[in-house]
Amino acid sequence: MAEKTSRTALARSLRAIMRATKVKGPEVAKRAGLDPKTVNNMVNGRFGASLDNVAAVAKALNLELWQLFMPDYIEAYLQDGQNLKTILSAYCSTDDTGRSSILNVAEMAARLHNNRHSPPLGLLDKR
């Protein structure tokens, strides 16, 4: 879905990342060296954020600046990570027959994932 403004794209990406990583606004602000109100305004799409502030938030979240303006990509990446966690959890809690089935499903999912262009993100690496 194309965003109407860069401000709404940024807000949507930040909300998705913060929800997925369970990082709150004040923590992002602290990591970025910003006032919590500034991050809150960015998350809620209020006011235009300076490029320096957006870059500081991107760095605090271990992202590239451009990634904060691609909410569809961010949401798809986060969903892929959640799907992987679900598969691993099921794999660890089943017998050999179940594991074989889970591996087959995981291989199909990996093939589908590899068919999409997916540059690496560091989102899930820094938890």
What can you tell me about this protein's structure?
There is one protein chain. The protein is mainly α. The chain folds into 2 domains: 6-69, lambda repressor-like DNA-binding domains (434 Repressor (Amino-terminal Domain), Orthogonal Bundle), CATH 1.10.260.40; 72-118. Helix content is 65%, strand content 0%. The chain is built from 6 helices and no strands.
Radius of gyration: 17 Å
**Number of helical regions:** 6
The main sheet comes to: none
Helical proportion, percent range: 55-70%
Question: What do we call the CATH homologous superfamily of the largest domain?
Answer: lambda repressor-like DNA-binding domains
CATH class of the largest domain: Mainly Alpha
State the end-to-end CA separation.
28 Å
CATH topology of the largest domain: 434 Repressor (Amino-terminal Domain)
The count of domains is 2
Strand proportion: under 5%
State the total count of DSSP E strands: 0
Low-confidence stretches: none
The CATH architecture of the largest domain would be Orthogonal Bundle
Topology:
Elements: H1 6-21, H2 25-32, H3 36-43, H4 51-60, H5 71-92, H6 96-114
Helix pairs in contact: 1-5, 2-3, 2-4, 5-6
List keywords for this structure.
mainly alpha, 127 residues
Q: Summed up, what is this model?
A:
This protein has 127 residues and is mainly α. It is 65% helix and 0% strand.
